[in-house]
Amino acid sequence: MRVLVTGGGGFLGSHLVERLGRDGHEVFVARRRDYDLTHEEDAARLFEDARPELVFHLAAEVGGIGANRANPGRYWYANLQMGVNMLEQARLHQIGKLVIAGTVCGYPKYAPVPFREEDFWDGYPEETNAPYGVAKKAILVGAQAYREQYDTNAIFLLPTNLYGPRDNFDLQTSHVIPAMIRKMIGSPDEIDLWGDGSPTREFLYAEDCAEAFALAAERYDGSEPVNVGSGKEISIRDLAELIGELTGFTGEITWDTSMPNGQPRRSLDPSRAKELFGFEASTPLREGLERTIAWYRAQAPIQAAR
Questions:
Q1: 93's torsion region: left (phi>0), alpha (psi -120 to 50) or beta?
Q2: Using one digit for the tens of pLDDT, what is the confidence trace for 200-256?
Q3: Which residues are marked as active site?
Q4: Pairing relationship of beta strands 233-235 and 54-57 according to DSSP bridges
Q5: pTM listed for this prediction
Q6: Engineering a disulfide at 215: which of 184, 202, 250, 277 sits with its beta carbon 3.0 to 4.6 angstroms away?
Q7: Which bin fits 171, alpha (ψ -120 to 50), beta or left (φ > 0)?
């Protein structure tokens, strides 16, 4: 098939492109430098250039707590606008299927753990990433509305926090795992981490997530959102100890309690994905972290030389 992947040059996108290539698909990778998908004309030009039969919409403007706090308006606008443009172009070009990446950040701040899809609308998201989460929730509404009125086959997946090789290690915009890895490798004596370490998170290796998206494209055609995760929860404090062990960090960790913790707990019920399209995460956290740390150690000298 001719497949379009927006954000295909990014973190999750690059892993999905490799997965699709192994199946023999002809993949068109949309990169931001070529197509600004917040602009309707660029989105239209992309569809004309790619002529896709299947579309994965992964492009997003996203980051950790600090980046979300610094860019609430931009993250709301850009993610909502990209989703709107992708849905409309999928309708106009009568695309066979549109697979949309949602976010675990759309869940209510105090959703019962593990998060179940039926609880998705039972409250407002955690404040630090609410604009991003609300934008993605609105795209789900749009996907369901387009399905009802125009018969657009758009499915909506809710991946949990991702990590792995090729992640974003920029301390200004990165998520927690790459930030910890970079700090612990680069600052052997002492590091600062936000919050008090008590919140919990669930993490999914990026290659596993790419597998889930590929399986969903092949096997799922429903209107309801589907969680994509590992179903395993770990506290930020325990995560820091594990990454410290794997990186060989023996310095002191200072927890900056003046900075926000974010959502108190975050873990998904992944049973719907297993039932509907046969996905189960296969990479244990320790193994995935070892691979990620090895990748970063190999890349850090290259990045420093640029």
A1: alpha
A2: 999 999 999 999 999 999 999 999 999 999 999 999 999 999 999 999 999 999 999
A3: 132
A4: unpaired
A5: 0.95
A6: 277
A7: alpha
